[in-house]
Amino acid sequence: MNISAIAYSFEHTAPRRPAEFVGIMDKIVSHKDLVVWQKSIALACKVYAGTRLLPRDERFGLITQLRRAAVSIPSNIAEGSTRRSRAEFIQYLHISRGSLAELETQYMIVSRLALLSDATTTLHEIAEVGRLLNGLIRSLAASSRAAHARACSHQPPTANR
Fold first, then answer.
1. For helices 86-112 and 35-51, what crossing angle results, to 10°?
2. What span, in angstroms and rounded, lies between the C-alpha atoms of 141 and 156?
3. CA 138 to CA 38: how far, in whole Å?
4. pLDDT digits (tens, 9 = 90+) for 73-131
5. Residue 30 DSSP label
6. How many whole angstroms separate alpha carbon 54 and alpha carbon 115?
7. How far apart are CA 115 and CA 62, in angstroms?
8. Do 108 and 19 touch, CB atoms closer than 8 A?
9. How many CB atoms lie under 10 A from the CB of residue 139?
């Protein structure tokens, strides 16, 4: 079985989203539909390409750290999107944001040491992924609060005695 067949099989056997995901998430079929996931995949690929240009003596230092942080960002977005509640998804997005902060810090070090010529461009891309992550977190949190408010506004009928 090839990779695309496995991916197709996974996408079409994944459980349906819980009712609380109605709203923003009803437009999202898969984590692959999220722009933030797409941009973070592109960022991870760019980090991998860039780390090939770093000195070999950084193989067990910055190279490993940069790659792990970069891969962690889209991975946590993907994993969180499959969770059963919006709160869990938001938690994974926060973890992703932490990995993004690690990556930003490491790229600032690379930039100050002038180890890569495009470090500044990559820092701008990191900032863009951060804005997208923050926006998704805000949107999910707001729709969660709205759903909670709707649920709480339904008062049970009072019995006339």
1. 30
2. 26
3. 19
4. 999 999 999 998 999 999 999 999 999 999 999 999 999 999 999 999 999 999 999 99
5. S
6. 6
7. 11
8. no
9. 13
> What average pLDDT is seen over the chain?
82
* Plot region of 2 (φ>0 → left; ψ -120 to 50 → alpha; else → beta): beta
Nearest C-alpha neighbor of 140 from the set 17, 39, 38, 16: 17
CB 43 within 8 A of CB 49: no
CA–CA distance, 54 with 60 (Å, rounded to integer): 11
List of residues 6+ apart from 92 with CB closer than 8 A: 76, 77, 79, 80, 81, 83
Structure tokens at 92: 């994974």
CB burial string 68-102: b at 16+ within 10 A, e below:
ebbbbbbbbbbebbeeeebeebbebbebbbebbeb
In 3D space, the residue among 39, 152, 6, 23 whose CA is nearest the CA of residue 89 turns out to be: 23
CA-CA distance, 83 to 14, in Å (whole number)? Answer: 11
Query: Is the pTM value of this prediction over 0.85?
Result: no
pLDDT at 21: 45
